[in-house]
Amino acid sequence: MSGKVFLIGAGPGDPELMTLRALRMLQEADVVVYDRLVSAEVLSQHSEGARLIPVGKAPKCHTVPQDRINEILLEEADAGHTVARLKGGDPMIFGRGSEEAAYLMANDIAVEYAPGITAAQGASCSTGVPLTHRGLATSVQYVTGHRQADKVLDLDWKRLADPESTLVVYMGVANIGQIAMGLMTENLPGSTPVMAVGSATTPEERRLVSRLDQIASDVRKADLEAPTLFIIGQVVSLYAEQPMAELFEQAQAHG
């Protein structure tokens, strides 16, 4: 008798941000197939005796190709196991969860979902920068800052360059210069504030506040690496007003 697969959003890293549903599913699983960005604290919540299978991918380093990940999930479920497919953030936001679900359901495997707090929400809460704010941003747009197999980054710059919207860029470290140029070409001012947040909600979180025409240079100088998320828009101007921002800057100054 076939098992089933839980597609679980682990959230951005802080285990306290997991949903009760996600935690229950993880603890019911016989096998946990997990991504590179799932924190050790989250992973440690698995049931005693569960078998762990790492399938993490890094930029330009896919040690386990997506096709093989699909096969692993199918093989384990076909063996009658309850499988937790554990993904950072939310499996349905740039997580390829829908692709894996389609493959499994095409092979008659039952799939259930547990949504997760996506990195944008985690970064917003940890920094105090809202994604929408009355008078500054009436909408928010999520985009991914890279293309599979290094294809051309063909984003709709005109739509994204909306001064009344907040733009959140996932996986954009390598292409942030191109992204900034594309937005400025469509008349988004170079003075537009930008915040880069690395490893949001974890003890390794790093923050960088810049502006659109300087962000690429500032990211290089700061040596920011993935996973880093970019929040672009007037909402970033609220960061300096947050007490937590002042505490963070003081902590940085004292090493």
Automatic annotation (TrEMBL):
UniProt keyword Transferase present: yes
SUPFAM superfamilies the UniProt entry points to: Tetrapyrrole methylase
Pathway involvement of the protein, from the record: Porphyrin-containing compound metabolism; siroheme biosynthesis; precorrin-2 from uroporphyrinogen III: step 1/1
Name recorded for this polypeptide: uroporphyrinogen-III C-methyltransferase
Enzyme kind, highest EC tier: transferase
Gene it is expressed from: cobA
EC number: 2.1.1.107
Superkingdom as given in the UniProt entry: Bacteria
A GO term for molecular function: uroporphyrin-III C-methyltransferase activity
Entry-linked PROSITE patterns: SUMT_1, SUMT_2
Family indicated by similarity: Belongs to the precorrin methyltransferase family.
Record lineage: Bacteria, Pseudomonadati, Pseudomonadota, Alphaproteobacteria, Rhodobacterales
Record-level GO BP terms: methylation
